[in-house]
Amino acid sequence: MSKSIPYGRQSLDEEDLRAVTDVLKSDFLTTGPCVEAFEQAVCAYTGAKYAVAVANGTAALHAACAAAGIGAGDEVITSPLTFAASANCVLYCGGTPVFADVDAKTYNLDPADLERKITDRTKAVIPVHFAGQPCDMDAIYEIARRHRLTVIEDGAHALGASYKGQKTGASSELATFSFHPVKPITTGEGGMVVTGDAELYQKLVLFRSHGITRDREQMTGDEGPWYYEQIDLGYNYRITDIQCALGVSQMKKLDAFLARRRELAERYDLAFADCADVITPYQAPEAESGWHLYVIQLKNGDRRKLFEGLRADGIGVNVHYIPVYRHPYYQAHGYRGVCCPNAEKIYDRMLSLPLYPGLSDEEQEYVIRKVKERLRAEKEKPVN
Ligand SMILES: *Cc1c(COP(=O)(O)O)cnc(C)c1O
């Protein structure tokens, strides 16, 4: 196989390209009608009440934390088995991320450990729907209600996933999505926050654009038709109409993307069913994953050797994720003593195999064959 197979990549067609070039010929490049159309498309699809599209998924998390009122002295509990942005957003607001361990089977935040990590300072929890599989949201919301915590779902992997028949975002207090090219749909860079709360929605809109309003009802004065006010400190986290046109077009394909991801995941499951060394991803019966990632664990065997071998075969395997508290920045900022044993054990043994809608059956068969060959070769190698 000559070209290499990545672990994830976007799927764009002619209709997507046309949507983008149409906007380039229009009056609006940045905030225009496509932003709202994209927000409405995500609301219609997920069942969320309000949506605010922003520059990227990290900005969405930052906006959600700000809207939740996270500030100095506040603790926010999240998973260590995630991209650093899930915790960095708390630091942006002056708060302190606290890591609770993941469940050994689902790799999602373990509600029991979440509860153990709650203190008087805990203000919010950021469950991450790892690989697209929704967290145990009933348990998490029950704990959150008892301790008066805001729930911010990091749904970067989970657009289109569902839990007990409801799409991620449908009944979320706050949930965020990312539209980076490897994510369920893409806008190049892009993100969104959804919420069911009108007050949070207003805060998110202000935060996206400098804290500036032109809404007469929100302003303290009115000095003329030119007048606007900055009533809070916000950022320029706006997304362009160019990106949102792509987003609207991509949303039409989301169900087809998800169906293909699921099909590929089932084919992997089947292929590795007879492979004693491979643990395939456990699926909780009440959740339907968006299959952002297909993560295996090696029960026995050298993960590094398999990683290097598969990379040499042109297969872009990856590791998701290095537990966040292990990064030097976190180590240097008070996390040296932190250890989440499940996350550590999973991290040591995990490997993400290629999974994206455009992966062909033949490419997947090549991946499966190479994984099996390399595992077998290692077994047969004499123990010196
Ligand atoms: C991708 C990702 C983000 C950040 O999204 P960006 O759009 O890249 O800023 C946040 N959390 C998780 C779990 C992600 O995978």
What does the model show?
The chain has 384 residues and is α/β, with parallel strands linked by helices. A hairpin with a 2-residue loop joins strand 6 and strand 7 (166-167). Helix 1 (14-24) runs antiparallel to helix 8 (241-251) and helix 3 (57-67) packs across helix 4. The radius of gyration is 22 Å and the shape is globular. The chain has helices at residues 14-24, 33-46, 57-67, 85-92, 111-117, 137-147, 198-208, 241-251, 254-272, 303-312, 328-331, 341-349, 361-380; strands at 50-54, 75-78, 96-99, 122-126, 150-154, 162-163, 166-167, 174-178, 191-195, 212-213, 229-230, 278-279, 287-288, 294-298, 350-353. It has 2 domains: 14-251, Aspartate Aminotransferase, domain 2, CATH 3.40.640.10; 254-380, Alpha-Beta Complex (Aspartate Aminotransferase, domain 1). It is built from 13 helices and 15 strands. The longest helix has 20 residues, at 361-380. Residues 56-58, 82-83, 85-86, 128, 154, 156-157, 178, 180, 191 line the site of pyridoxal-5'-phosphate (PLP).
Shape: globular
**Strand ordering within the main sheet:** 1-9-8-5-4-2-3
CATH class of the largest domain: Alpha Beta
Number of helices: 13
- Integer tally of domains: 2
**Small molecules in complex:** pyridoxal-5'-phosphate
Q: Compute the average pLDDT.
A: 96
Q: Tell me the CATH topology of the largest domain.
A: Aspartate Aminotransferase, domain 2
State the distance separating the first and last CA atoms. Answer: 33 Å
Task: Give a short synopsis of this structure.
38% of the residues lie in helices and 14% in strands. It has 384 residues and is α/β, with parallel strands linked by helices.
